[in-house]
Design goal:
Helix content of chain B: 25-40%
Strand content of chain A: under 5%
Low-confidence stretches of chain A: none
Helix content of chain A: 55-70%
CATH architecture of the largest domain in chain B: 2-Layer Sandwich
Number of domains of chain A: 1
Mean pLDDT of chain B: 85
CATH class of the largest domain in chain B: Alpha Beta
Oligomer: heterodimer
Largest sheet of chain B: 7 strands, mixed
Number of strands of chain B: 20
Radius of gyration of chain A: 11 Å
CATH topology of the largest domain in chain B: Chloramphenicol Acetyltransferase
CATH superfamily of the largest domain in chain B: Chloramphenicol acetyltransferase-like domain
Distance between the termini of chain A: 15 Å
Shape of chain A: globular
Structural class of chain B: alpha+beta
Structural class of chain A: mainly alpha
């Protein structure tokens, strides 16, 4: 769980290098707290898809709102 | 022989610090080759050669800050006859984010000694710099490193000063007029959702790209909104270089997507993704900061309903898009809920008038009603 979360945080930091990993709150909307836009979020979702070998349909984007959401999504979709 | 001067990378730049030269005396350069890296109050940029030639002399060494227009090198022009290939840079390009560079300076860390960073493509990040600083200071536990927030703050303050100067000049010199139009986006978004449904995630197109494309094509119909007001006259541009406002940690910048009107949606999407990524990692080119012929600001799907922007001089127009949201619209005499956006135009009344500005906004709306034509 922690390793998975760290991996996702690592992907976030590649998208938004100015972010301090320690300041990311797991249950707060990533776009709001990291001040990233829709393009950054799409790049993050693409990075998630590549990292975990997932096919993430557009309708699922809202399910990747917080860090906890992302962890739960990967856990439930990864084989 | 001609002097190569410290370039202005925007109306809000007064001076720049030379971070590193990528060429040395005797090197042949071609137009577009990166000559040096310059740090401004906004971010660091690669500065390219504006013509072919041979570097005769470097006049200002790295680490020095000089005013815009100051000669910093001498380059002998060789014209089109130059056949030698462009030289390799004398030093490897240091990949480092703008904030990391500021923090490194504040903490007294030489980024070149950090090695490969943990950011994208090995870019050095703030965390890398802080780790290097902590490692360096371990034997001196009594001396706490200054808080990184100080460097962050100074960069933000520098950017605020730059924005203040440019926007004050804009409001002082440019007689703005403002128009707005609510645009029904239901056809465009439905079309886009169908398009994206059949595509892998890496080939999907975001809705802001449709808006950019519509702006780029609408300019064809009202070209006087595309260009610069200089020397008391409108200098209309034949090319459409869309400045795209990007919000960074240190403030807002608006680099250009060149020839956006000639791009397919896929090309525009790729160009926007690339621009945003390079803006975040501090690897924009100087030409991208100076070439915009009109700026588009999109406050995103979580922004306010509408934005009435301040024109970035010497440009003559700025287009704003507020949040896409469901609104009550009258369509064919029926009151219906439709996803829509409020498009605004801030324009220079010396270059255009409200009637033409209105035609421009209506052209954007019409183009978005038929997204397949974009």
């Amino acid at each position: 769980m922690s390793e998975l979360k760290d991996t996702i945080v690592g992907l976030l930091l590649k998208i938004a290098p100015e972010v301090d990993a320690a300041e990311i709150k797991p249950d707060v909307d990533l776009r709001d707290q990291l001040d990233i836009d829709s393009m950054d979020h799409l790049n993050f979702v693409i990075a998630m898809a590549k990292q975990f070998g997932l096919e993430i349909p557009e309708k699922d984007y809202p399910r990747l709102t917080t860090l906890d959401d992302c962890v739960a999504y990967v856990q439930s979709h990864r084989h | 022989m001609s002097d190569f001067n410290m370039p202005s990378l925007g109306a809000d730049m007064d001076e720049g610090e030379i971070l590193a030269w990528k060429v040395k005396p005797g090197d042949s350069v071609r137009k577009g080759d990166v000559l040096l890296e310059v740090d401004t109050s906004k971010a660091a940029f690669d500065v390219e050669a504006d013509h072919d030639g041979v570097v005769e002399e470097i006049l200002v060494e790295p680490g020095r800050k000089v005013a815009v227009g100051t000669p910093i090198a001498r380059i002998r022009q060789t014209g089109e006859a130059l056949a030698k290939p462009a030289p390799k840079p004398v030093a490897p390009h240091l990949r480092i984010t703008p904030l990391a560079r500021v923090v490194a300076k504040d903490l007294g860390v030489d980024p070149a000694k950090i090695g490969r960073g943990t950011g994208i493509d090995g870019a050095i990040t703030r965390a890398d710099v802080e780790r290097a600083a902590a490692k360096h200071e371990e034997p001196h536990v009594e001396k706490a490193p200054p808080p990184p927030s100080g460097a962050d703050k100074s960069k933000r303050e520098g950017l605020r000063d730059a924005i203040a100067a440019a926007m004050s000049r804009s409001k002082r010199e440019i007689p703005h007029y403002y128009l707005s139009q609510t645009i029904d986006l239901e056809p465009a978004l439905n079309w886009l959702e169908k398009l994206n449904a059949g595509r892998p995630i890496t080939e999907r197109i975001l809705s802001p790209v449709l808006l950019l494309k519509a702006v780029a094509h609408a300019i064809w119909e009202v070209p006087e909104l595309n260009g610069y007001w200089t020397d008391g006259a409108l200098n209309q541009s034949e090319s459409v270089h869309l400045g795209v406002a990007i919000s960074l940690h240190s403030g807002v910048i608006a680099p250009a997507i060149h020839d956006a009107d000639d791009m397919s949606l896929e090309q525009l999407m790729a160009a926007l993704a690339d621009l945003v990524q390079r803006a975040r990692h501090g690897t924009l080119k100087a030409s991208e900061m100076t070439d915009s012929t009109i700026t588009v600001t999109n406050l995103g799907d979580r922004g306010p309903e509408a934005v009435y922007g301040v024109i970035y001089p010497p440009q003559v127009a700025l287009v704003g898009f507020g949040a896409v949201m469901s609104r009550a619209l009258v369509i064919d005499g029926q009151l219906v809920a439709r996803r829509s956006v409020i498009a605004t135009l801030s324009a220079d009344h010396r270059a255009s008038d409200g009637h033409r500005g209105g035609l421009f906004l209506r052209a954007i709306a019409r183009l978005l009603e038929h997204p397949e034509s974009l």
